[in-house]
Request: fold
Amino acid sequence: MSGQPLRLVYFAWVRERIGLAEETLTVPADVLTIADLAIWLAARSDGHASAFAMPEVVRAAIDHVHVKPDTALAGAREIAFFPPMTGG
Amino acid sequence: MQPCHIVVRVQPQDIDILAESASLTAGRTDIGALVTFTGLCRDEGAQLAALDIEHYPGMAEAEIARVANDAAGRWPLSGLIAIHRHGLIRPGETIVFVATASAHRRAAFEAADFLMDYLKTSAPFWKKEHATGAQGIWVAAKTADDADAARWNKPR
Reply:
């Protein structure tokens, strides 16, 4: 994982608080899971901190599949963070 | 039994529910039940100017297809349609359309119910309400929808 650029995409109020719809970042080797990534992202800016202020509310998907916070990042190409969904 | 014909679409434009329904039964004589559900944009108290629905392109189609294939595995369906709109939607307009066809009604009713419960909880769409003259507010997810989706996992 270390040294690989990761594409991150954000939706709804997660996107609004961060101020970006997407970004590509190189994630340190010790960031192993979705939960680790949320903590690491929260430290990047005030906007990121605001988006991840209640991490239990933010959902994630890896390559278009819903994942739990303890899911490993290994092999991921695109990671999405978003609020609970309100479709239908 | 023939495989279930599944149609999944995510689109900004309005849905022709009559044409879509007809497509499930055209040329078929083995279908005894056609169930359809239409989800509409509701305006309580005449406050809503429009809904703006954001979605995750790629994942929206993939997730709805996953749920549709799950339904086709659980019930004996001959056809299934699930169409969800995104973008600006005005009160009275259709947001989502689900149709299921089967030999008998139980499968068609249950599959449509199941599809809607999962569309409401796992399909990556987010609604923003725009009241007339005010800034948009994100609609919050309901715990009742999660409970509805969970009931399909109870042992039968």
About this structure: Chain B is about 35% helix and 35% strand. The first helix of chain B runs from residue 17 to 25.
